[in-house]
Amino acid sequence: MDKPQLTVGLVTRDKINFTLHGEFSCSATEGTRSGKYVATVEDGKVIVEGGGTRETFEDGVVFEPSDFDAEHFTVENVIIGVDFHWRREEKQDFRGTLSFIVENGKLTALNELPIEEYLTSVISSEMSARSNMPLLKAHAVISRSWLVAQMRKSERLKSGGGTYEAIQRSDDELIRWYDREDHTRFDVCADDHCQRYQGVTKIYSDRAVRAVRETEGLALVSGEEICDARFSKSCGGVTEAFENVWEDVRYPYLISVADYKYDPDEFSLHFRNEAHAEKWIRESPPAFCNTTNHEVLSQVLLQFDQETTDFYRWRVEYEQKELAALIAKKTGEDFGEILDLIPVERGESSRLVKLKIVGTKKTLTIGKELEIRRTLSETHLYSSAFVVDKKNAVNGVPQRFELIGAGWGHGVGLCQIGAAVMGEMGYQFDEILLHYYRGAELKKIY
Fold first, then answer.
1. Which of 178, 213, 207 lies closest to 194, judged by CA?
2. Distance of CA 104 to CAs 14, 60, 61, 146, Å?
3. Which of 168, 220, 305, 441 is placed for a possible disulfide with 145 were both Cys, Cβ 3.0 to 4.6 Å?
4. Are strands 188-189 and 5-13 parallel, antiparallel or unpaired?
5. What is the structure's pLDDT at 86?
6. How many CB atoms lie under 10 A from the CB of residue 35?
7. 3-state SS string over 52-108?
8. Of 315, 301, 323, 300, nearest to 399 (Cα)?
9. Does residue 217 contact residue 115 with C-beta atoms inside 8 Å?
């Protein structure tokens, strides 16, 4: 296959301020553009103002650089960490084409660029570009694999090769998962929902450039398919199987793996047994990602990520009124006072796939893991691998709930912190990949 081009959704807003650095041609009019502009929406049309002009574009607008390497553009107020506890806005710089489209009455900024340029930014945005080379190379391969797999999936869906349903609802159960089904007019978004992409803002080391160049075109494959290579910050000691987080499809390379050289002694990894899950979560078993080494963590955790320090094992407490109000807000349902949070089904990493919420007015089972994490937090719980301690019951109603948990993220595929530790221990990038993606193979796809 040829090297693909892709389109990234950068930000969606009512108004977007941007700057064109260099000479950019405009798809709808003659001449070039340079300098500061603001884009807005009026009556479903894109309005661009700047340099003393005001232009209206019926079907969106595209700004094309005359020289990809020499010119770039800046977009202000790009949101990173959407819905996460460290959410913030940044001014970011990008190479390639800038375009604007209207979606649901709002303006979306898009960036089209070659896949290898995108990957250089992704591995610098997902982690420090000063990370050890085995980790950077491994991440270049999985980011490339995931991206091409998603692009092919989109093509199949658009050509009528299937439908994508991400919710199952009944009177007593709500099962929902969150993937990328909401991106229909571009390939990927720029935030954690897909992969962090922060343009050239984060490319401050030639190590990221080297990692992408030395793995160019290299992807993970399983049979004839390119691997849907997922990853998360910290698996908590055991990775999760794909089907317990997203749709009920079992991928042979996204199965559960102990994140260590061997299965930890004195622990059973059969977490369908609640006693085994309790022991695992309440203790701190050995794992590659069980580290407090700041030098290693700083390779994976960027400055805002380092606000999270208790990712391997963590604790969250709620008072009764606080928890009841939170659940009512997130579900839109009045449960009354919360009596219990009951594990119904756990995945292979001890993450909850289904959780029963029992209230004085209503009982509902929810899943999958991200729905659970969103329901029990203003942003997201670190993971759905947790056990619950109920405290200070009054007339059978607990007055406080304590959640003790493990890991950060969905836990499927590569564990970024575990992979960073493996790189520091001397494992090569292919050994890291084949540890997390069992049975997969490395292959040049272009």
1. 178
2. 11, 13, 17, 28
3. 220
4. parallel
5. 47
6. 11
7. CEEEEEECEEEEEECCCCCCEEEEEEEEECCCCCCCEEEEEEECCEEEEEEECCEEE
8. 323
9. no
228-279 per-position pLDDT tens digit: 999 999 999 999 999 999 999 999 999 999 999 999 999 999 999 999 999 9
What's the token pair of residue 361?
């007015």
**Rounded-to-integer distance, Cα 388 and Cα 212, Å:** 43
Window from 61-75, 162-176, 226-240, 432-446 with minimum mean pLDDT: 162-176
Q: Which residues pair with 401 in a beta bridge?
A: 318, 390
d(Cα 361, Cα 438) in Å, to the nearest integer? 46
Phi-psi region of 350 (alpha: psi -120 to 50; beta: other; left: phi over 0): left
Strands of the 386-391 sheet, one edge to the other: 313-319, 400-406, 386-391
Provide the mean pLDDT of the chain. Answer: 90
d(CA 351, CA 353): 6
pTM: 0.86
Q: What is the pLDDT of residues 146-205, one digit of tens each?
A: 999 988 887 776 676 555 568 889 889 999 988 755 567 888 888 766 777 878 765 556
In this structure, are residues 330 and 374 in contact, taking their beta carbons and an 8 Å threshold? yes
Burial track 166-178 (b if 16+ CB lie within 10 A, e otherwise):
eeeeeeeebbebb
Residue 346: its H or E element: strand 338-346
| Residue recorded with tokens 């770039």 | 72
- The answer for 237, left when phi > 0, alpha when psi is -120 to 50, beta otherwise, is left
Residue type at position 209: V
- Tens digits of residue pLDDT in 332-372: 999 999 999 999 999 999 999 999 999 999 999 999 999 99
- Per-residue three-class SS string for 201-266: HHCCCHHHHHHHHHCCCEEEEECCEECCCCEECECCCECECHHHCCCCCCCCCCCCCECCCCCCCC
